[in-house]
Specification:
Layout (H helix, E strand, L loop, with lengths): L1 H13 L2 H23 L12 H6 L3 H22 L1 H6 L5 H35 L7 H32 L2 H18 L10 H14 L3 H28 L5
Length: about 250
């Protein structure tokens, strides 16, 4: 299993997509700084280096959607079309272990992206606005915990897109499906009764409900929905992958 995970991570970091996403994240952070300084976009809101990463965490779910879509399209569809997937499975490899290695690789890369976003946001926020007064460890810990728990709804979304990729073997459908779900999510968010079922909305709201404006009912609901997404689409991926003929 460790060899499979190491192999998937090697393939992931050998590509340029992760580094391009990091550059996009930097561009977003700089644009937020420029807007706040010159356009008064955050008028009335006190920003400093301590608060800047948590402020940005609310703006990055759509970046995570794009990264997941491109990552999975490359990890599943492109490998299937080029025969890399077939070569991997010609060895005595259990398909569940192979699938799990890809999921772990996705989760690790998402952790790297979120870690980079928060670290760079601390640097850019401090250089632009100063660190701020009343510096304490509590806000830093809150930011780190918020970034960590955001991985869970992003993973749920990633398994959904993996399911689409395994079923269709089509890069356009995989990426288009991810973008379509993102658009549909915006429609769901207009309804208070339905938005908590949107996995993309939960990328922005779960950490707030858990750490910022804690309500037991909302947190339990969020955890149940995220767990259902993860379990349902992981099982779906396993069943679809077992039925897929990739060796012939």
């Amino acid at each position: 299993m460790n060899k499979l995970i190491n192999n998937e991570l090697y393939k992931a970091f050998r590509l340029k997509k992760i580094y391009i996403i990091m550059l996009v994240a930097l561009a977003v952070e700089i644009s937020v700084v420029l807007q706040s300084k010159f356009n008064g976009a955050t008028s009335g809101v006190s920003i400093n280096g301590q608060k800047f990463p948590l402020l940005l965490l609310d703006k990055f779910p759509y970046l995570f959607v794009i990264f997941v879509a491109v990552f999975i399209a490359d990890s599943w569809v492109d490998e299937y079309r080029t025969g890399t997937l077939k070569l991997s499975l010609l060895r005595p490899v259990n398909r569940i272990a192979f699938l799990s290695a890809k999921v772990v690789s996705l989760l690790f890369c998402l952790g790297v992206i979120i870690g980079f976003v928060l670290t760079s946001a601390y640097a850019i926020g401090t250089l632009s606005f100063g660190w701020g007064e009343n510096a304490g460890i509590d806000l830093v810990l809150l930011t780190l915990k918020s970034g960590a728990v955001t991985l869970l709804p992003v993973l749920g979304f990633g398994l959904l897109i993996s399911f689409i990729a395994i079923l269709t073997d089509n890069m356009g459908v995989t990426i288009g499906g991810a973008l379509g779900i993102m658009i549909f999510s915006q429609m769901l968010e207009a309804s208070e009764a339905l938005r908590d079922y949107s996995i993309i909305y939960l990328m922005r709201s779960f950490y707030k409900n858990l750490f910022v404006q804690y309500t037991q009912e909302a947190v339990i609901m969020n955890i149940v929905v995220i767990t259902v997404y993860i379990m349902m689409f992981y099982v779906g991926c396993v069943l679809a992958f077992y039925k897929k003929d990739v060796i012939a």
